[in-house]
Amino acid sequence: MTTENDGPARRSRMVWLLAAQTTSMVLLGLWVTHVAAGHWPLTLEGRLSQAFATHRSPVGNGLTAGLSLLASTEGIVGVTLVCVAALLALPSAPRWVEAVFLGASVAVQSAVFLVVTFFVERPRPDVPQLDGAPPTSSFPSGHVGASVALYGGLATLVLSRTRGPWRYLTAGLLLLVPPAVGLSRVYRGMHHPSDVLGGLLNGAATLLVLGSVFLSGHGAGGGRTPERAPGGGAGAVPARPGRPGPVGGRRGGGRVVVVRHPHGCPDELAAEVRARLQRHGFTVQRWTSTTVDRPGGSLAEECAAGGVDLVVVCGGDGTVRVCADVVAGTGIPLALVPCGTGNLLARNLDLPSDPATALDEALAGGDFGIDVGRVEGDGLAPTRFTAMAGAGFDAAMVRDASPVLKAHLGWAAYALSAVRHLRDPRMRLSLRLDGGRRIRRRARMVVIGNVGSLQAGLELLPRARPDSGRLEVVLFDPRGAAGWLAVAAHLAARVVRRPAAAPASRGPDGAVSVAAGSLEYFSAGRIEVRFTRAQDREVDGDTMSRGTRLTVDTEPGALRIRLPRAPGGAAAAGAAAAPSGVPEGRSRTAPTAHL
Question: Which of 21, 257, 447, 581 has its CA 20 to 30 A from that of 80?
């Protein structure tokens, strides 16, 4: 289940809009230089430039020099980096979407500017120039366009992501910078007024295009608490921390949609959920039940109609996955009532095991951004997951777990199913991480995780964090009784204690392996897996069709979760227990392996 804001759709829309913007700017530049030249009002530009040059003064020279420096390449790049770093350094939840929007706006404006100057040649004003002239056309003004993208982008974020009357004053001051820069460029003899107008149009068009892709539908100033969206499908995505609600819930509550799995959430629990939502101020409740044909109920229609302030999911990881696929990127927060078999996401977010208590504590907390994975493959429609996706042994185990045993034994039913597949043949596969070279392996299963802990505190992916901006990969390949014993001993040791170091070896391709080579770990933002033969596949505990491919991309911060506290505390502790010699900091473009 997808929404029209999914990554591929956003990227496609952005490409077409930017192509239209670039074409329009080129045509406007050609009109200015070939059609309108010599006609009113462009005939007045020479007189205006000469008047500025005639009336220059030391004060004016100094003031305009500062404005030009502020909008220079060095100034724009420096301020942009500082602002992006500040957005990503927010303590409880980095604003990935806002950071991507701002940085991309500056970069895209510059790219369009360079394309336009390639096709449009316009000499600078015939007056003494106070700055060195770069080897580009005078049309459009790059300084002005860059200042619109940066300071106009900041004003957009202030208006759409903050509250209070002070935001109008702040945004107004930011919006004064581009015209002031434009005036300084004309004063210093660097541009014609029409060049400044072209720069204003280029920067504004860039903000409109990228704002419609990254920020549309994700909150506005003066409304409900603005949430964050992924950045552009690929990810991006940035967030603001939610405000912890006051005692008794967020002030005024709001409209909530409750998605209920009828088997996981019996009537008694449903009544408790309804009462606790009322207690926290959510008096307007819309309930919808899942079915085989509609695993998310009517959630997609409810969200499309607008006005949804919170989605509550009463079910297991499969129901959470379907609902997350709908709301990821919309800014609508999700609250979990963990009443499924595994409840991996809830466990990794440190929510209480009691469903009603988990909801109660979450509603008293705030909203935090977590990553989601986006998986697709042959015969597998693109879908998101919040916990894990995999193929091989684990998918077969999920497929053959008895529904009756799951109802009576819970997650232990998976352990009984796993016994049946201990002697399944190994898979031949290849991994490609972040577009690098293919790594060929044999394994019994491959698991790609956004979180790392299984039931009973079993850490399959110790480094996985739901807000890390990357996904973790493990290849599971025990050979013979000794291999199975080594894996069992290694995983059991991490349940009993968190060692400061563990025997690990690094392969020539950078992979880190433990348990006598039975577990091999990688980390990347994009993972491509190919199998020589069709394999069982699963996504968040739901069995998918067999196939030969899995491609998974990270959508950082795409999903808003209402939690009692920021996610990742347990994972952070696990990260501290990593073996020595394994690097803590990793570039997402240079995949490294870890335990």
Answer: 21
> Cis ω on the peptide bond leading into residue 140 (within 30° of 0)?
yes
- Encode pLDDT of 33-61 as tens digits: 999 988 888 989 999 999 999 999 999 99
Q: Could you give the CA distance from residue 184 to residue 188 in angstroms, rounded to a whole number?
A: 6
Please check the confidence at residue 577 and state whether its pLDDT lies above 90.
no
Q: How is residue 432 written in tokens? A: 């490609």
Average confidence (pLDDT) over 10-24: 84
Residue 477 near residue 444, CB atoms below 8 Å: yes
Residue keyed to tokens 């541009």: 191
Measured CA to CA in angstroms, residue 78 lies from 108, 213, 309 at distances of 16, 25, 37
- pLDDT value of position 93: 59
Phi-psi region of 469 (alpha: psi -120 to 50; beta: other; left: phi over 0): left
> What's 52's DSSP letter?
H
Using pLDDT thresholds of 50, 70 and 90, give the confidence band for residue 220: very low
Cβ(78)–Cβ(153) below 8 Å: no
d(CA 337, CA 357): 9
The torsion of the CA quartet 523, 528, 530, 535, rounded to 10 degrees, works out to: 80
Residues paired with 366 in a beta bridge: 563
Query: 10 Å Cβ neighbour count for 485?
Result: 14
DSSP 32: I
pLDDT at 29: 93
Inter-helix orientation angle 166-187/45-54, to 10°: 90
DSSP 3-state percent helix, strand, coil across the chain (nearest 5)? 45, 20, 35
